[in-house]
Amino acid sequence: MNNNMETIRVITLITENSLQASLLKDSLEHHLNAVINITPLASLFGRHLTEYDRVSDIVIIDMSVYTVQMNEIYADCRDKLFPDAEEVLINCKNDVHYQELLSWSHLSGVFYVSDSIDLLTRGIDKIMQGEMWLSRKLSQEYILHFRGRHNAASTQAYTRLTKREQQIIRLLGNGNSNNQIADKLFVSENTVKTHLHNVFKKIHAKNRLQALLWAKENIGD
Predict the structure, then answer these.
(1) Structural domain contains residue 203
(2) CB atoms within 10 A of CB 117
(3) Rg for the chain (alpha carbons), in Å?
(4) Binning pLDDT at 50, 70 and 90, where does residue 218 land?
(5) Where are the beta strands (DSSP E) in the chain?
(6) Coil vs helix vs strand at 133
(7) Together in a domain, 114 and 25
(8) What is the pLDDT of residues 31-73, one digit of tens each?
(9) Beta-sheet strands, E only, within 51-176
(10) Are residues 13 and 119 in the same domain?
């Protein structure tokens, strides 16, 4: 793992303590510029961030130990502890349907129980760079879902964006990460994030995934 503390990301892995979890932590820390904190969901109940806590950039949820009964607990913890963190689901069923994932408001990646650690590592690395990691099947299902919800008002919303916001959402729709967008527009990554935040509000997108799909549906090449 890279020792440059300025660039090390903090990742919370919500799962039970086990040998498998420890091996996953070790592998991710070895290959990624990140610190992984293994955290059983129950241990987060009632916790609050302090001024000494480093906010997690990504939350990885192990769906093999996650149950429907945990939804309320996680939602409460997320708002208090991970308000802006990207959400990544691992060990999902191979036949998981997009409707099962709509409640994850910051979803950035989905990995299946059959995926290898190497694939998971590559995907998490891309997510750390501001990209998404979804199968083609899930992406198509999401597009069809949001196509049914959006109408001509979506195209009108695009015309209300500033020129810079239009540039950024177009680049996002073409698959560029925040860092790549910043390089192409000669601005800082923080500036890109600020513009994207404003764009999300204007197009009524809850997260990057919805904004990406919106762009693909409403912006021509």
Answers:
(1) yes
(2) 13
(3) 18
(4) confident
(5) 9-14, 34-39, 58-62, 86-92, 107-112
(6) strand
(7) yes
(8) 998 999 999 988 877 676 655 567 789 999 999 998 877 887 8
(9) 58-62, 86-92, 107-112
(10) yes
In a domain, 4, yes or no: no
Domain range holding 102? Answer: 9-134
Q: What is the pTM of this model?
A: 0.70
Q: Residue 14 is part of a domain; what is its CATH number? A: 3.40.50.2300
Torsions phi, psi for 62 (to 5 deg): -85, 105
Axis-axis angle for helices 189-203, 208-218 (nearest 10): 70
d(C-alpha 197, C-alpha 189), whole Å: 12
Query: How many other C-beta atoms can be found within 10 angstroms of the C-beta atom of residue 208?
Result: 19
Question: Any bridge partners for residue 87, and if so which?
Answer: 59, 107
Per DSSP, what are the bridge partners of residue 37?
Answer: 12
Half-sphere exposure (Cβ direction) of 198: Cα atoms closer than 13 Å: 14
* Last-in-domain residue among 117, 134, 151: 134
Sheet holding 58-62, edge to edge: 34-39, 9-14, 58-62, 86-92, 107-112
147: number of Cβ within 10 Å: 15
pLDDT on residue 5: 45
Which pairing describes strands 86-92 and 58-62: parallel, antiparallel, or unpaired?
Answer: parallel
114 and 159 part of one domain: no
Neighbours of 107 (CB within 10 A): 23
